[in-house]
Write the structure tokens for this entry.
Amino acid sequence: MSYKCIYNGVVLTMNASGEIIENGAVVIEGARIVALGNEALMGGYEFEEMIDARGGIIMPGFINGHGHVSMSVFRTLGEDVPNRLQRFLFPLEDRLICENYVRKGAMLGIAEMILGGVTTFVDMYYFEDEVAKAAKEMGMRAIVGETIIDRIAPDAQLPYEGIMHAKALIEKWRGDDLITPALAPHATYSNDEAHLKEICEISKELDVPVLMHVSEMAYEISKFREVYQLSPVQYLDHIGVLNNKLIAAHVVYADEADFALLAKHDVGVVHCVAANAKSGRPVSPVNEMLKRGVKVGLGTDGPMSGNTLDVIGLLDQVAKVQKINEKDNTVLTAREVVEMGTILGAKAIHMDAKVGSLEVGKLADVIIIDTIAPHLQPIYDYYSALVYGAYPQDVVFSMIHGKTVMQDRKLLTGDLPQIIKAVQKISKKIKAEMVEM
Ligand SMILES: [Zn+2]
């Protein structure tokens, strides 16, 4: 037996009782956690590798529940103007997006996430097999969904061609230990009823998740009210596609009836506070959803919408925005917010049996936060330090599936300078294309 150990830190388990272990240690065998507790337990093992947390926080990696990682190639493009997606993004995607852009953009985004303590991300885009390959090569855990939409798209000559690509993606990646393939109908308003039902059936038959933008846009709400006299969530219930395979991104517009349906059908919700704020959308009623038992995780959205892929930054934003929204500082405690970034996020993407907390039997997705920094000392409350104090740069170690992918801030599974250079090259081509627009 060969064991690894992470020791000399405070273990924030994020288990159901919120156990925190001072002078803690986590023992890993292969891809799994086989023991954790006080450092005294280390005496029972012989270790092939010992990782010293140097008094920092040892915790489960963060979960980025929604995004389009390859859109990092468009980061900071066409900011702060009306209709930026229609004016810049969609035409550029139609003209330029190809396997190479998707792959290089994904590598940049995955590097950023690994360096920021994210150990699982959920992605939906075109040529999604390239995202899967990049994640696999870089040792990152991901749910990858091929986009299905009612029009032609960068990788689809026909409407709904994405279903065919999604099936191929599922066939290729099903059973992989890092990659979970998925179907990703773009949104409630860009897929018709028949296709949403078909996608739902495929997901049940092949036992894969469904990723979709839900209740995000004002025009989406008015469309469903006008045509069906229903909210988008009620409409999805009405056509029978709400279930525990669905991971609904955004859910900005929702009321009591929607909360009840989301909770009843065990739909995961991913709140994208930074992207929503930047788009000037209303505040998603996250606190209300949590009170009604809806599983709400956090997502950055794509790097054109939320700009960074930093989940630690979202912790601070979600807490403050909810407190402002409800004019109440007691709303969303720091512990609840860290749960949203870890175990609750894992529940929202239906992966909590495997990841999201440090517990015996779970996969070893573990990070270390260095706390010897002026912005983090002293610490009376670990959750509060993480939510209101920590930066992604404070993450100094990351292990995914038992393999070290980042140590002392160095990415071990990719050549970061090369990755950045490749995306800069792409950005020059995008700039040249914009001059002609
Ligand atoms: Zn999105």
Observations:
- The first strand starts at residue 3 and ends at 12.
- The longest helix spans residues 416-435.
- The mean pLDDT is 96.
- Residues 62-348 form a domain with the TIM Barrel fold (CATH 3.20.20.140).
